């Protein structure tokens, strides 16, 4: 990691943090305006369906485009490749948007039931979710184009510009909700998202992406588009897995009540915050490194990048997950409990949040393995496991709901599925791509778990002193004490990845 890359990484972390805080602020505004009402449930149901295809384009495009563009650029064909991918995506994105808008009125009433609502309110909730889904699918066309531009910015290591353009969409949603929620209700969120997608597109065309880097209008070269599509589609389907599983969670939650849909979404959004910051940031930064190692036929650098990526993720994420579990009730209270969001909703959301934490850890580690497969253009290898994980999630939901008779079975099923999903991919990677240095990984992982245990012990000892303090002071002091104890413990145990990280930060 050179000085320039370290600086780029720091800027990206800051930009990502701003993006995710913006996303959290959006959820706070939604909770304040709509609480756990049928309007917010209709919004979450509609967005879950459309977001499956939004992720298909955004994350899928980045994972497929970054290595293909780096290879094309090395061959002097970067301009042609970029131009053809944006043209092909324009056609494909329009087809997906039109089909999604026409299918939503048929699909949503079948998937989401809300049996607890009175018939007239239930009909209103479903009608609202359909209308919102149509608006979101119109936005999908713009999102598909934005996805190509953001992938280009990532390939050029301009991560911060990519993140800023995504922040525009969230900012527009927040502003629209604040200004128009009283007049048009949940429509304010959907129209805000659509306006944000358009503004983000305009910003990239005018300022972020160089005009001479590509040409939008022109003939389609299927000889260039077809090989990319063969790589892109399996990769994009693979990255849809997380959102497809969230849609499954929403469908099962809607069989209990509209409130259960809200608890699942509020909880998942807050507990996946560390994954969105830590897991995605490490994965995004390491991806071009892995792709360039493959382009230079440097297998040793490729394997070392994966090992360090996995351990760096575990080093930062494990204590964050443990700390979040310790502070869950306070966290939900601070973030959501105001306006229409009640204390009962806080307790219900916190209970769901505890059971989602396993999925945070394993999906973040899985993200590193995904980058390794994508770097080798072998996304199809993990496609079958990804599809299996969806079936597994459905099966586990039926099993745990039968055993627990509660919507709490839904996050539990997701966490167990994430564990199996990561374990299967770990086995497949070691068998097909060569074994990773398991001795280094196991030894350092044991030290990270030990340091986390020391942190939790310190928090338990300090809890008697902190429990009567104001909630904001208690939350802050607990986080500070936990972070200090964990860093000291990790260094005292001579965790290799922590020493590596510190040495690189000093050099930068």
Main sheet attributes: strand count, strand direction, barrel closure: none
Radius of gyration, CA atoms, in whole angstroms: 22 Å
Helix content: over 70%
The global form is globular
User: Residue ranges: pLDDT <50 for 5 or more in a row?
Assistant: none
Explain the overall architecture.
With 508 residues, the protein is an all-alpha fold. 86% of the residues lie in helices and 0% in strands. The protein is built from 17 helices and no strands. The protein has helices spanning 3-34, 38-74, 78-111, 119-155, 159-184, 187-208, 222-239, 241-254, 258-271, 273-295, 299-336, 343-375, 383-404, 409-432, 438-466, 471-492, 496-507. Helix 2 (38-74) packs across helix 7 (222-239). The longest helix is centred in the middle third of the chain and has 38 residues, at 299-336. The mean pLDDT is 87.
Sum this structure up briefly.
With 508 residues, the protein is mainly alpha-helical.
Summarize the SSE layout with pairings.
Blueprint: H1 3-34, H2 38-74, H3 78-111, H4 119-155, H5 159-184, H6 187-208, H7 222-239, H8 241-254, H9 258-271, H10 273-295, H11 299-336, H12 343-375, H13 383-404, H14 409-432, H15 438-466, H16 471-492, H17 496-507
